[in-house]
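Worked example 2:
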Amino acid sequence: MNQTAPARSDSDVAQSAAPSIPFLMARNARQLQARPAYREKEFGIWQSWTWAEAYDETRAIALGLLELGLEKGDFVAIAGRNRPALYWSMVAVQMCGAVPVPLYQDAVAEEMAYVLDHCGARFVICGDQEQVDKVIEVQQSVSGIAHVLYHDKRGLRKYDHARMSSLADVAERGRAAKATHDAELTARTEALGPDDPCVMLYTSGTTGRPKGVLLSNRNIVETSRNSSDFDHLRAEDEVLAYLPMAWVGDFIFSIGQAMWTGFCVNCPEDEATMMTDLREIGPTYFFAPPRVFETQLTNVMIRMEDAGRFKRWLFERAMTHARKVGPAMLSGETVGAMDRLRYRLGEFFVYGPLKNTLGLSRVRVGYTAGEAIGPEIFDFYRSLGINLKQLYGQTEASVFITQQPDGEVRSDTVGVPSPGVEVKIAESGEVFYRSPGTFVKYYKNDASTADTKDAEGWVATGDAGFFEEGTGHLRIIDRAKDVGKMADGSLFAPKYVENKLKFYPAILEVVVFGNGRDTCTAFINIDLQAVGNWAERNNIAYSSYQELSQHPQVGEMILGHVEEVNRSIAQDEMLSGSQVSRFLVLHKELDADDGELTRTRKVRRRIIEEKFADLIDALYSGQDSIYTETEVTYEDGRKGKITATLVIRDANINKAAARVAA
């Protein structure tokens, strides 16, 4: 029997007064003229633009695009790192009645070629020379690209500029041609309605080719309004825009919510300086996928292992108390006076300096999503007093399906339906939703659209979950296609086990197998930074990732982590059958360039199962080791092979707990 969660707002959401993103930007330019809208760090210096200045730059780019011949309905691809000029370009494209298509900046030329060809992009706006080179590489196989624009001029002086222009030059051409095109641009912008396309974003492609998700202005504006109201976001807030621009989360936070609330979007200098820039900005509203929080925690643990005895003692003592009372204090629960005093002392000596080091001192609202976060990692940040919450979303939902209200935050749920969203659970256990953010369609893929969204607007998420009785909170078990049964009938949920293992700083990635089998097994990737630091302290010499991953002492350390997780899993009667009986440490990191991960760092299970079938067979055949050859892709695009003999280890299983589950 289906269960339906009530929406968090009226059954019929009133249409917003804002018909489009360009409308909101023009409103901000009038009402928030002198407030900072965008900042960018370049050459170590922060540069700022007010809303009035950002609007002028955006309109100049739009006029320049009209001068170049951009037509209504054209698709414009945008590739590069987070920069104000690229965000302005997206809105400028919308002003012209065209559709922006952000691309992953780390996508290889072949991946870029697929998207460019699929959407039929006539214009491509590139961040720098690297992106331009990829476009030039694929132009012979991708027809229809009329013009390439670029933001950073470095390295491009001697290129053929017959169909190539600097974005700054295009803006200048737009200003010069204002008298010619201003009326046309105004007409196109004012003609935009809620149901007109706003953006097309491509799915990560975990099971096949990425699909183009077409989202309307209504989808983005309504979702931005509802989610901003939910967390009381305001123009005074600050965000750091560092996530891939092709990801729906970045579009909602850096375009949708920024335009609705008028808060300031800050772009770091580059990936290497992101943590420094995070500390300098001190955002009040922060989003990061679990991988970012895992990396931050790993760095903290590495630093504490290198610290003196007294600092380690103080940190461990303070964190023990923080885990005891921190989350309760953050949720407004009653905490004893002595416990509160001890926490305040910990805040002064440990938690405050640590949050400052992480750049999270001013965070008022923080979110994580994309993948499930390990409960230990989640609770660590909550214990510091950081208001970290979980949301559940999809590209097809314009991000938000469920959110956690303040005072109802837990590590084992993803909250209640977001405002305006309805959620139900099918008899199969799959989660369905419908909302104002529900996507228009998959571009050029009516069959997939029909399979995913029914005539009543209900969208199949592909995830298995259930509502808790009493609280109305949604719990996601795993991807529906990944949840299965062990041979004895007990539940198999690989993500649950993987997240527990990834809590340890030494473990970067995990892939668990076991559906239909007697036992669970696992591939494990070590974290080179964390394990390398540990090896240095223990005088262990190594010359490569491969050598370190197969070192006997590293294997013993990972074995200890696996067995500790097994003891924890054994306490869960429903999932205790998913304890890991055997594992191996992979000789290479799983990599998006090798097709093993998506560009959003999600594991492509089916590809891994096919690619490493010999290793899986060895895990289940009782072998102690296996020789393997693996094709890899180097940074310059060349292919090569690496060989290794991998050691397979057995881990202790809590058999009594497993029998209970059976």
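The chain has three domains: 21-192+244-255, 290-437+447-479, 484-661. The mean pLDDT is 91.
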